[in-house]
Task: structure prediction
Amino acid sequence: MKTAIKLSLTNQIMIATILGILCGFVFQGAVSDLKIIGELFLRLIQMSVVVLIMGAVIEAVGGLEAKELGKIGIKVFLWFVGSTILAAVVGIVFGFLFQPGAGIEHTSAATEAISIGSTRLEDVLLNFIPSNIIEAMSQGNMIQVIVFSLLFGLALSLIKDEKNNHVILEWIIAFNNVILKMVTLIMKAAPIGIFCLIASVVGESGVQVLGTLIRFLLTLGSASLLFLAAWLVVTACYCKVNLWRLMKNMWRMSVVSFTTTSSAVSLPILIEDSREKLGISDRIAKLVLPLGMSLNSNGLAMFLSLSVMTFAQYYSIELGTGDLVQIVLLSTLACMGTIVVPGGGLVTLATVMPMLGLPTESIALLAGIDWFSGMFRTLLNVDPDVTVALIIAHDEKELDHDIFNGTKHVTKTAE
Result:
């Protein structure tokens, strides 16, 4: 009797990616209609992201003691801000080394409609606080949802301690389990959705999508991989874990983030693998990872700083030390509360460009390859979030080395 060969979701996604690229090159525009299937898959995932993040943060914060939250929160903030600034600096350095803007051929392709955000610093800061949480949820403004969830979770934690009332917290935990189960079911369609998305993108753009700005992609890719490799080495040394085991345990989440180009879509996988493969406690994973999705966008920071360097080289603009510092600061600040779905990088870039006096129509130069640059951005957005969670878990003595090393298997999350 023959045994059926079972492929893991990771392998299915990798195969779907390769087939999608081949299908796009062979059939070109004939597969453009497949895009609707891919977009349906992304919408199925995205429809629950706001409540998933809100529920995870409220559960994590609500289950903490107030003094505990303060101690962990400061650590998380410092690691997030430090890594984001470092990523922006690396983008500038690689921009100087590879000079990607020097070889760009100008295109007259029209810039797609992109919503330009507020350019004033005070407006950016005010945008952290929602005037209406329902409106913030409907618009998918993640930073405002995070702020509300932190305050709600803090109030819930205080009520829990003062009144000894755990009813609301228990209800939220049960609700989160339902949402996670729903997303897990939707993820079974990931290979089909990803195949359709990639086939349609390659089919519509052809070789041009890889050729016009190949130097930019190579620069971004090499900078991202070098930064990630160095960051993993630092994490392995700090947490006293095996580097190769760390990379193996993070392989599935890396593949999902790279192929979907969406931190939001990757979040359920991150939470699951952090607990079941890396040995990070539920408490740390559910607090750090949702916060990292909106506040720790290393890949986006690098993309923004490198893009500005590319445009400056394209327009032959000389940048002084003050300009470089401004680029780093704006790239770091713009990453907080950004759109965490495919295409969000162009919207954020449209916010940064006018702040630096660069023409926003230049974004058309990168619009054609946004999907491919988004692969590297998302990989660098997602993996450092997990490593920060690993570092915090190590500091708090909540890292299970037996699970990390594969000598103990954790029970699956309640369904």
